[in-house]
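Give me the 3D structure for Protein PhnA.
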Amino acid sequence: MSTLPPCPQCHSEFTYEDGLNLVCPECAHEWSTSGAAAESAADEGRIIKDSVGNVLNDGDTITVIKDLKVKGSSLVVKVGTKAKNIRLIDGDHDIDCKIDGIGAMKLKSEFVRKA
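Predicted structure for Protein PhnA (115 residues):
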């Protein structure tokens, strides 16, 4: 009889150990044996900083520090353009925002400064 806890996502009983992690074979969910400590560590690992090292958060206002060409268009986002109420996302372009006159865009944090 297994003494391992069930999967927190699908509640499957067939979990197994893989090094320091537990793995569910049914939904492929992996989690640490320390449980809640791993969840908070994963949240803390997602720190996104602007070009000068300020930590960015959802809802911040940012300023573009370099002229950025809009791919597939002749438009250019000029230096000093502000974007309000940003949303942080995972990926190469880690900021999702709306820019007046252009619309929804994804930006890299290295080209912005917190306003």
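The chain is about 10% helix and 30% strand. Let me know if you want a second pass.
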